[in-house]
């Protein structure tokens, strides 16, 4: 039995959530008087409400025929009377022009919606998707917003991410897709099933270079032989079939995904410097002879040019001069070479100072010890 204390806590949590939701939405007041709407050109965010408040006269607030969202208030006259319209993401990006039905030539204005940068509106009309070639980031939402005609938005068979809207025809209807890292780098071509030859477009993804997407399907990992840097993420994303991704016994890093089968399922790993240099062979437990691949790490090559401080592929007096300029005059920094102090550390003591210049001079003119890495 649930205690009174538990019920009280749940009621408080629900109230808190409700208050938070209300607090995040804003109410914008527009004054209605003879013969104006004040202020003009109100800018709102999705979820906000516009409240028209009457102060004088016989007026309405009525959306124009060109407005993506429709509304029409009653004829109000009393001071303090009001009419509310809430604007949602599904209403589209606008703008939303409106007027007073009694004074349309002198009383008119427009509501503008501040669309988040993570939301991309694509208008669906006869016979185009506008704008074309939308560029999105993982986590962004694409919203197709119907303007006219019977159309769909349907992914092509070649798109790794699949979607298919119903056949929609009414102005203001919408369909949305959220793109994630697991969907891969794309591109994601799509079309209208009613007009597949004339209405087609593509979503392009700004995919991070530190994330590597491997499609899992019957019976391959694609692409093969992925090369990663320490800190990179590998995401195996399922296209079809019952498969796993599991490290071979010889792999320095071990992993084993669950048995996954649904399109859109995914499994990810972070490869760190502590995992070693690899390579990291892996396979599918169900098809170990047909589905196998390897992850490779891009490891810095050992330095073979210690003392070549100016990186001109030769060790001579110019390198000593370069070091002296760096140490005493704030000159250019010796290049990195995959170890602590780079090419300037000619004597391998882990520091770059005058002793490295002396070491080079001794090597060049007195047959001293050759430069050596730490």
Structural description of this entry:
The strands form six sheets. This protein has a four-stranded mixed sheet, with no helix packed on it. It has four domains: 91 residues, Cupredoxins -  blue copper proteins (Immunoglobulin-like), CATH 2.60.40.420; 87 residues, Immunoglobulin-like (Sandwich), CATH 2.60.40; 87 residues, Immunoglobulin-like (Sandwich), CATH 2.60.40.420; 74 residues, Type 1 dockerin domain. The protein starts with a helix and ends in an 8-residue tail after the last helix. It is elongated. A hairpin with a 2-residue loop joins strand 1 and strand 2. By secondary structure, it is α/β, with parallel strands linked by helices. The chain has three helices and 24 strands.
Number of helices: 3
CATH superfamily of the largest domain: Cupredoxins -  blue copper proteins
Strand content: 25-35%
Mean pLDDT: 89
Low-confidence stretches: 5-23
* Class by SSE composition: alpha/beta
Distance between the termini: 70 Å
Radius of gyration based on Cα positions: 32 Å
Percent in helix: 10-25%
CATH class of the largest domain: Mainly Beta
Spell the H/E element sequence: HEEEEEEEEEEEEEEEEEEEEEEEEHH
Q: Indicate the overall shape.
A: elongated
Q: Which sheet architecture does the biggest sheet show? A: 4 strands, mixed
Q: Which strand order does the major sheet show?
A: 2-1-4-6
Q: In the residues, how many domains can be counted? A: 4
> How many DSSP E strands?
24
Which CATH architecture of the largest domain is right? Sandwich
CATH topology assignment of the largest domain: Immunoglobulin-like
């Amino acid at each position: 039995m649930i205690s009174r204390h538990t019920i009280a806590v749940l009621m408080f949590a629900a109230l808190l959530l409700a208050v938070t939701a209300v607090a995040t939405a804003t109410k914008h007041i527009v004054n209605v008087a003879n013969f104006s709407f004040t202020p003009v050109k109100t800018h709102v965010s999705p979820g906000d409400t516009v409240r028209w408040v009457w102060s004088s006269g016989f007026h309405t607030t009525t959306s124009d025929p060109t407005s993506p969202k429709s509304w029409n208030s009653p004829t109000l006259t009393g001071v303090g009377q009001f009419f509310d319209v809430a604007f949602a993401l599904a209403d589209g990006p606008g703008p939303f022009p409106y007027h007073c039905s009694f004074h349309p030539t002198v009383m008119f204005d427009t509501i503008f919606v501040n669309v988040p940068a993570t939301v991309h509106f694509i208008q669906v009309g006869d016979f185009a998707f506008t704008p074309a070639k939308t560029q999105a980031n993982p986590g962004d939402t694409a919203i197709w917003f119907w303007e006219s005609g019977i159309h769909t938005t349907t992914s092509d068979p070649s798109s790794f991410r699949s979607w298919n809207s119903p056949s929609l025809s009414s102005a203001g209807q919408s369909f949305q897709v959220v793109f994630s890292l697991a969907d891969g780098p794309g591109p994601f071509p799509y079309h209208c099933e009613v007009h597949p030859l004339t209405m087609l477009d593509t979503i392009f993804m700004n995919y991070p270079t530190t994330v590597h997407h491997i499609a899992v399907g019957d019976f391959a990992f694609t692409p093969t032989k992925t090369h990663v840097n320490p800190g990179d993420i590998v995401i195996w994303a399922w296209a079809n079939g019952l498969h796993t991704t599991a490290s071979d016994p010889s792999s320095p890093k071990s992993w084993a995904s669950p048995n996954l089968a649904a399109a859109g399922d995914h499994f990810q790993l972070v490869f760190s410097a502590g995992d070693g240099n690899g390579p990291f062979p892996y396979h599918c437990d169900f098809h170990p002879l047909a589905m196998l691949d390897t992850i490779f790490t891009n490891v810095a090559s050992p330095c073979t040019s210690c003392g070549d401080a100016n990186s001109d592929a030769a060790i001579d007096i110019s390198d000593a001069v370069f070091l002296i300029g760096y140490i005493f005059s704030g000159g250019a920094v010796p290049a990195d070479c995959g170890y602590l102090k780079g090419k300037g550390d000619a004597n391998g003591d882990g520091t770059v100072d005058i002793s490295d210049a002396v070491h080079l001079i001794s090597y060049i003119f007195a047959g001293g010890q050759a430069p050596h890495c730490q």
